[in-house]
Amino acid sequence: EVQLVESGGGLGQPGGSLKLSCAASGFTFSGSAMHWVRQASGKGLEWVGRIRTKANSYATTYAASVKGRFTISRDDSKNTAYLQMNSLKTEDTAMYYCTSDTAMVRWGQGTLVTVSS
Amino acid sequence: QSALTQPASVSGSPGQSITISCTGTSSDVGGYNYVSWYQQHPGKAPKLMIYEVSNRPSGVSIRFSGSKSGNTASLTISGLQAEDEADYYCSSYTTSSTHVFGTGTEVTVL
User: Of B34, B40, B45, which has the smallest distance from its Cβ to A102's Cβ?
Assistant: First the structure.
């Protein structure tokens, strides 16, 4: 069964850090680009960033709203992608989803991040 | 990168066809055939319905179809059913090697 399971969400302080994980199973993780997408409560989807495969040099790109603060990485030996979030802002509060492949074929159920003092 | 423009809401009666538009620019929708559509029911994760403008993933009903003309992509749902009531989002690859989502459309089955 294909699965993406996010974890690591919770309460973060403004200016603080959180690291999310996305554990994959049931498909060839190492051959799949991985994205992070977020959705604030009652709002639309916002693309956060993407990491490509080893064959594409693990290239990363980010939305302007998180560039310089968030970093996406992956460990193909653990079939896991990560989202390191630094310098958190209240506007980063959202459900965070990981999703695979250029077309964002497979999605996890999300992990909730709340940034508040 | 600004969000792609979608109508806030579209409605139709059971059995009817509806079309949702997704308008971007030559830097995203108009420049690439990497336009996708996602369905999201309340409290659930999005589900891919159409990829690369007009391709349906395995398991998605043939009632869903996609197209593109210039800077505008479209999703058509034919034979509207109660289960189609959901939010729908388009997305596109961009010249900045990023992706961008549409503003989202709420579909109501009357």
Answer: B34
CA-CA-CA-CA torsion sign (A57, A98, B85, A92): negative
Cα–Cα distance measured from residue A29 to residue B66, given in angstroms and rounded to the nearest whole number: 28
- Residue A46 pLDDT exceeds 90: yes
| Closest CA relative to residue B38, chosen from A58, A20, A39 | A39
Report the gap between the CA of B108 and the closest CA in chain A (Å). Answer: 17
Per-residue pLDDT tens for A86-115?
999 999 999 999 999 988 999 999 999 999
pLDDT digits (tens, 9 = 90+) for B37-70: 999 999 999 999 999 999 999 999 999 999 999 9
Closest-CA distance, B31 to chain A, in angstroms, reads 16
Contact B3 A102 (CB under 8 A): no
- Per residue, the 3-state secondary structure of B76-94, as one string, reads EECCCCHHHCEEEEEEEEC
Q: Are A44 and B104 a contacting pair at CB < 8 A? A: yes
- Residue A8 contacts residue A20 (beta carbons within 8 Å): yes
A103 at interface of B, judged by CB pairs closer than 8 A: yes
